[in-house]
Predict the structure of Ras-domain-containing protein.
Amino acid sequence: MSNARVSTSSQGSARFAQFKLVLLGESAVGKSSLVLRFVKDQFDDYRESTIGAAFLTQTITLDENTTVKFEIWDTAGQERYKSLAPMYYRNANCAVVVYDVTQAASLDKAKAWVKELQRQANENIIIALAGNKLDLATGPESKRAVESSEAEAYAKEAGLLFFETSAKTAENVKELFTAIAKKLPLDQQAGRGARAGAQAQRGVHLQRGEVPQQGCNC
């Protein structure tokens, strides 16, 4: 069952769609930094690891008639929280699985998350693979451990969107979420009374019991 909601304005042409998005990946790959850059256009050189999950929202205007709101669950990457993940990806419309381009093992972990999503999540879920910390993988002091061609070939085989991103420099962050928004089935969802207005409000909203501590060093 989908969590998507689409409403049409009184003019009959403007659309406001709302979708649930979850971020998954190993600890320290930069999930929270990606979200912080996307939602608030900010970056912290060091962020403490997420505890449990954080809930945030952000909107994207695709064109003059279409606005997409993401309800984002940023999950913790530590192994002890792995059993909680299905609570967050259940009924998600889309997912960003993040790995660190300077840590080869993090791509293996990302592949495991993709398999789990494909096996247990919404069968129509849109999955994007994001290789983060691109800023550390360029120039003479590059720390790259995962070749973009390798990750891209895997993403193509698995039917995933693929971007290399840098939360630090903002490279490809907006492009990542925009590409996801464009893949979502805006015209196939039944209108179910989305929350008021297609206002592109920025915000961070933490659920009761969630801790506003975010991902790390990315």
